Amino acid sequence: MGQLPAVVILILGIGAFAHSARAQTLPRCRSLYIHNGKPLPETEAGKYGLVECNHGFTFADGAIAKHMFCVRLPGRSVAIWDGVKPDCVNSTLPFSPLPKNSKTCKDVQQEGSTVIDPDGDGRIQPFTVNCILINQEMWTELGHNLAKDTTLKGPGNIDRYLNVNYPVSNDQIEALVTTAGQCRQYVSVRCYEMSTFSGQYWWKSRQGYDMANWGGAPTNSSKCACALSKNCAGGRQCNCNSNDGVWRSDSGYLEDSAYLPVSSLHIYDLDDSSEQSVVTLGKLQCSGAKDACTFNNGNCAHSCTAIGEQAVCSCRDGYVLAGDKFGCLDVDECSSFNGGCDHVCSNTVGGFQCSCRTGFTLDINGFTCTDNDECILNKGNCSHTCSNTEGSYRCSCPTGYTLGSDLHTCQDVNECQTGNGGCDHYCTNSQGSYSCSCRPGYKLDSDGHTCLEYMSKNTTKTCECRLRAEPPHTGLGTHLYDLTTLIYGETQLWASDDGGQSVYSVLNRFPNFYATHKRQTTGYPAAASDVDCVKVFQNCPRDCVRMTRLILGKEKLGMKVAGEVFGRLTNTTLGQNMCDKLRREIDSPGRTIAITYDPHACGNEVVTYPLSQRLCCTLVPSPVGHLLAWNSMCEDGDTFSIGNIIG
């Protein structure tokens, strides 16, 4: 018997290509030249044909069968077969006939290299895989470009990436893993002196997602298999994170088909010469098969039900099945009786939605509209008073405020800007109100506006108590802080801490002011016709010392005062306020702070007593450069932060 001629067998698909399912006039395929010049039988455009070589022949690239699609080319009156020209040539390869509609190796039931078509007669071209029998079950294997036991060594980049290439297209991989019953891929790493799994991700999925788990561990669990049994080296989540000078390993199967196969491996911590790693990535292995609805949802727009080998489509509520039995058409519920809505009916894809006009709320039944009391929720965003109205609401303000342009916020009215608020002397505005105060020597009347003189004109001799830095030689030293102003009245001592805007009785604020030996002996001068400068000099030095101790109290230089930090007013410590005024660094043991008194019209300022606490100022770093910070303990060293400045 002579040698068989090289012929091709055309096996036509049983139905039209999925994307061409809608009714249309299809051209005919003609004049396809094949080996020894014989044309293929004509067929309809829009279908796949499986061209298979006879025994002893293959295509030029070694394939024994190819799918080609019948298309119409521009300017041609007939359609032709698209793809590689199916010309069969002599081959010494053993013949392995491809069963019709073989989707996986389970259908082939024969080990070795073979061609499969996971989506049947769909749009995905068939491709070559390896079939292998594992535990009495036929598995489909797909290899890649990485060699077994790939060795990586330091020094070099701390991050190493192994890109994985497969001999088929992404669409063919997608068809394989989505139609298979299960898929897996073995990964292994042996490491020395490394923290392999400390990088941002460990491998990339077929979609390019960053994944953080290793073989044998759940998806994105940041664990290896040893962590599940709690026996990883050093109690870590992976053996290869121990970095302990011992060869370690982590291995196992990745089994989440939603992300397989691996497209890239990320090996971390290879920047030192002592670090090395050996990486192995197994072939993608898949077994079993899902039903007719698994791949591309059976080409159904909504729901797919597998009945035998056929996919039957159905639609969700709000849709009807289209004439092609695949698509779903939206139903406009609002076209009939406004969809049952009280106010507005809006058709949506696959449904509809009722809504209400402004000022109304949709009831829980989804159809009825009721008046919305906007004031219930957060007072309608009104800053003060919210009043509900039919279908709306309005905001209003109490006395002392006016409604802003946003019609929600109440803004304070500054009463002091109009006629000084009716105050005789000083008017101080506050949120929603204001208050009056008087100059030294006057007190506020019961009407809250009028100032009445409460000290005679000859009782206005004053003495100002200050804090100054000890001068390096002679003089008063740098002025650091105005503590208080003492006012010697006819029968009692007054004081003002705010430059005279408000005055208080010293005995009312400090009942024990005179509880010192000298004060008990000397006492406050008895009522006299006037308070002259002699009496000021007699009392002011001791009074300033006593007031300083009472005002500073236990906090001393840590007392909170108003100050300016980074160009804004804030509370800071008295010590920090002094450092800001000195503008220089003062090391331990620090600078003495002296109490001074200024008798004003009676004479010049005089130093009277030193404070027990000394002042130290230290330069500390900050985002805007070095700043002076008050060193409360006068300790050596840079132990201060921005917190020392702000207080």
TrEMBL record:
GO terms of molecular function: calcium ion binding
InterPro entries: cEGF, EGF, EGF-like_Ca-bd_dom, EGF-type_Asp/Asn_hydroxyl_site, EGF_Ca-bd_CS, Growth_fac_rcpt_cys_sf, vWF_C/EGF_Fibrillin
Superkingdom field: Eukaryota
EGF-like domain ranges (all copies): 330-370, 371-411
Keywords: Calcium, Disulfide bond, EGF-like domain, Glycoprotein, Repeat, Secreted, Signal
GO cellular component, one term: extracellular region
Transmembrane segments: none
Stretch forming the signal peptide: 1-23
Cellular compartments annotated: Secreted
Entry-linked PANTHER family: EGF-LIKE DOMAIN-CONTAINING PROTEIN (PTHR47333:SF4), VON WILLEBRAND FACTOR C AND EGF DOMAIN-CONTAINING PROTEIN (PTHR47333)
Name of protein: Signal peptide, CUB and EGF-like domain-containing protein 2
